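Q: Convert this sequence to structure tokens.
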Amino acid sequence: MSGASAPAPGGQGEIVLHTYWRSSAAYRVRIGLNLKGLVWQGHAVHLVRGGGEQHRDSYHRLNPQELVPTLQHRGQVLTQSMAILEYLDEVFADHALLPADPSGRARVRALAQLVACDIHPLNNLRVMQYLEGPLQLAADARTQWTLHWMAEGLSAMETMLAANPDTGTFCHGVRPGLADACLVPQLYNAHRFGLDLAGYPILRRIEAACLALPAFDAARPENQPDAA
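A:
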């Protein structure tokens, strides 16, 4: 990964990921790229510095939502981490992120979306900035908001994993996939905000198994070139 100073074209098969070291959504795409063994170039978009580089005109033209990640490949511009991960799974066959059977795919998507659609959106940077700014919510109240929604979602995920025999070393069987790529970044946030994870033994076990793998280790926020 390299921190280029300007958006790269992403053509001729080159993969360019516009990322931020601490973004959960970008983190999950980094994991997916690494699991598939793909060579990719990172372009750092600092979400805080100077009011947020994602709000610059050049990036707005690339991604009108002004969010990361954005992935460029073969002249295409792809947004939304879950769509990007499924695109990668369809284009690159090595290390499938989804199971082969329909019920398995539905289960893994449900686990992944529990994180990506229900937990993460309530705790991301722009929500925190809105709570802090226009709503003038005190720091302690913002923290309690964050911890509440994390705990509610992770508790449900722990129960779902405990109740299903398809849970293995990873969220689904013996190979990490889409659900694990979503879970690990969310647990990074949980650690960061001080959520007590003692009540989530399955999640912690899966997290440890994932982080022992080079693909996950290389994607860690602290291992990114733009890490503050």
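Confidence is low (pLDDT under 50) at residues 1-8.
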